Amino acid sequence: MLKQASPQNATGKLAVEIRRLVIEMSGSPNGVHIGGSVSIADLLAVLYGEVLRQPAGGGAPEGRDYLVLSKGQASAGLYAALAATGVIPEEECATYAEEGSRLAGHPMKTLPGVDFSTGSLGHGLALGLGVALAGRRFGHDNRAFVILGDGELAEGSNWEAMMAAAHHEVDNLIAIVDRNGWQISGRTEDIMSLEPLADKWAAFGWRVLRIDGHDHDQIREALDGPVEPDRPTVVLARTIKARNVPGLHDTKKSHSATLSADARRLALEALDGEV
Molecular function (GO) terms listed (predicted)? Predict the structure, then answer.
């Protein structure tokens, strides 16, 4: 049973809780991809708080939604969302990346709420396409949401899935690009230029929405609004890597980090008063 959040600014509180849990997990000696996990916190809060049907997975396939975290290195953000909504015990977050833990560095499908093991970048969009096609074929009212990193768009398999989704007119597929501008080696535009990114998706036949990935109203409207018949949708969400985390905000070093107790304290203090 999912926890029932307070109706007053519930999604905002959920976003803060997700970031809090990510920051606490960042004490792991194995390191946490804190930047990419924090940049998708608001997207996850709207998805888990308002949009996804049967977010814990399981049960009958009819009328449920699927979420594929293609950028599997941001698993801490996903685990935080699952814990904050009661899908997994919150105390389990303390076991992140430990030997024998269910919370591996990349999400594993043995965990409740995880339908696909991911992290081999470039594969998630094809998985989401398969789910969306299967739902349509069997007459199920399914939606497939796929969270992609902008850096992983350098993988050619994404573009094959994009082309196939448009060709098959899969309008129950929604791709969400975490456009934080960074990948492991540096700025995306320095490593492999993506712009004009919106034009490229549109040229492949997709409906393109551009939003502020930290604005819950914009996220909600993009993800839960009406679709365009016979066209898949991509949401280009402009975000900030490690948003508001002292010393890591919009920096390369936030890609994988182990924060000291003092650094975690400062980061948690920065969350105070947000909601």
Answer: magnesium ion binding
pLDDT digits (tens, 9 = 90+) for 129-157: 999 999 999 999 999 999 999 999 999 99
- Distance between CA atoms of residues 250 and 94, nearest Å: 26
Hunting for tokens 């916190």 — which residue is that? 41
Whether 18 and 80 have beta carbons less than 8 Å apart is answered as yes
Report the C-alpha gap between 110 and 126 in whole angstroms: 20
Three-class DSSP category at 68: strand
Q: Kind and range of the H or E element at 17? A: helix 10-25
Q: What is the pTM of this model?
A: 0.94
Do strands 65-69 and 143-149 pair parallel, antiparallel, or not at all (unpaired)?
parallel
pLDDT in tens, 39-68: 999 999 999 999 999 988 877 888 899 999
